[in-house]
Give the backbone structure.
Amino acid sequence: MKKKNYNVWLREQLKLTKTRVRKWEDWDPQKTYQAFYDSRQVTIPTPVCDWSFLVALHEIGHISTGPRLFSHLSEYNAEQWAINRASKSYNVVSEDYNNDAKNYVQNHLLTDLIYYGYDINKIKPYVLEWLGLSQDQLIRTITQMLKESKDSTNLNKETNKVLQCHKKNLQSKYSSNLTV
């Protein structure tokens, strides 16, 4: 099996995207890494495995694809950029990472819908297709979250407060499909 040259590959991508590393961090799957659009800098893990390589590419992907108004679009673009770059340029594919990426984007999408009033009808069809979701499934998920929010043991205090605050707005938006 050929040795994977993660550091060389990352340096190629950094050069191609004119991105600088603000700080190399030790790989920790619980750590948050960052992209800084204005300065075209990233804080990324030193890659030691496919997953850490993909995480580093994800942050570079933020710089390469640029900021978006809603987080799910920003995260979707960065994930797509990282996954495509890794698979096509370096033959690095991780189904576990891909599944986690989908969950990550879905969580950002739910946040945008619930907290920031993103219109469910404006979700890009290609995002829903990649997530394997329909608008109806998202509405059911939101409905379930709202039902669970009545039981404060299922959600932290701040999330519960925000959901209760937005409940009327959501009910009016999705009145035909949402019952709380």
Q: What stands out?
A: The longest strand covers residues 20-25.
